[in-house]
Amino acid sequence: MTRFIGLFILLSCCSFAKGEFSRTYIDQFALSSTHKSGVKISYKVLGQSDQSVVLIMGLGSSHILWGDSFIKGIVDANYKVILVDNRDTGESEKFTAWGEPTIWWQFLKNYLGLNVDAPYLLEDMAKDIIAVMDELELEQAHIVGASMGGMIAQILTAQHPDRVTSLTSIMSSTGAKHLPPPSSDSNKRLKALADGDLDQSNRFAAMGFEPAAVPRQLMAIIKAGDRSQEVASIEVPTLVLHGADDSLIPPMHGEHTASLIKNSRYILFQGMGHNLPDAVLPDLIRELTAHLAAQSR
Q1: Which pLDDT tens digit goes with each residue over 150-192?
Q2: pTM tops 0.85
Q3: Contact 165, 141 (CB under 8 A)
Q4: Domains in the chain with CATH codes
């Protein structure tokens, strides 16, 4: 069971990677760090502008996984981009001393309504983002999150609305129990991965994926449960982006997020799964930067 879930998460995270993945542009910028949230959180600042965009990556992934094309698209639209390494990833503080949870047992406890063990919460990860903003003396910023990063972004926006100019939630979820699970097609691809060569750790690491963080961050997601009520309290201008072919977090998750946030805008991209594909990226960046510009004005 543990191997199965681990492979599933591996597949979901690494599906962000595009065929022409590059990090050369991102690597040009120096890492800084802050301890304002009580743990070391590393970040990079790219571009110069009075309008800031904070990007929050997903499960087990550092800031690198965004890739050059997506980041340059935002910087070239005249925004300052802040890339954050979530706790347990990149150069941020690791929680290896806490150990690795027995995932099947934690899933069973959650199913039975018992308390799930986790070294930190999604709320703590949202506070890490606030800490970076405080370190940079940013009163407000546009908040953009993908997958688990979208969940963190939703929590940050709901709990700290005065710090958020706009919210963009990409291929993410509210965690509502009625939403569909990953598709059977995902399970087939998962089995194919399980039967094949798994020795790709160097390739995954180069893209910013860190398997060691996955079980602990997964516990934070499970512990958060259904956040629908909190998401429904969001009032800042919100854009919800999702892929029509997303079989890891099916489109209904994005639809539900948008349905809860008053006056939000929902865009479904054909040809996009749980990733940022090259073919879709120009349209996605155009919609995102138009959303940012509307609120910046």
Answers
A1: 999 999 999 999 999 999 999 999 999 999 987 666 545 544 4
A2: yes
A3: yes
A4: 2-296 (3.40.50.1820)
